[in-house]
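B., you asked whether I could sanity-check this one before it goes into the benchmark set. Here's the sequence:
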Amino acid sequence: MRILLITLAALILLASVNCERRNVADSTITTNVKSKLATDAETSALKIEVETNSGVVTLAGSVPTQAEKAEAEQLARNTEGVTRVINNITVTQNTTGETGAGVAAEDLMILSKIRSRYVAEGVVGPDVAVKDGVVTLTGNVETARSKVRAESIARATHGVKSVNNMIVVNQ
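And here's what the prediction gave me:
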């Protein structure tokens, strides 16, 4: 009986260790995919959600172009440890002026830098638009501190002339 209990305890411990390894690997994969999205100038990292379960990455959210959706999927597929990608990203018409024809390369660079910093610092909620170096922040955040941090990051970004902070703090 004692040997049976010891064996059972060992099996439970082994299963627990394997589960923890998988969770660590999944969280690492998620972090790596998010990092790739944040550093890629073609993707809206803040608008794409990433979840990983047993190496299967699920992408969700909405982006303005089919090309961006495809780029996000390709970045996820090329991440170590990914066994499959489920791309649930929707393509919606761009109404914020963030990207598209006629947008200056400098504005796109500013936009990319701000989004990357938001992802790196865990700032969630703001939408960013850039036109001629003027940044407009909209959307909702959970705290006043997040609103201030979002503006601070935008103001500190090279090339920004001014910031219009229209972010709403959820009550």
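One thing to flag: The longest strand covers residues 56-63. Otherwise nothing jumped out at me.
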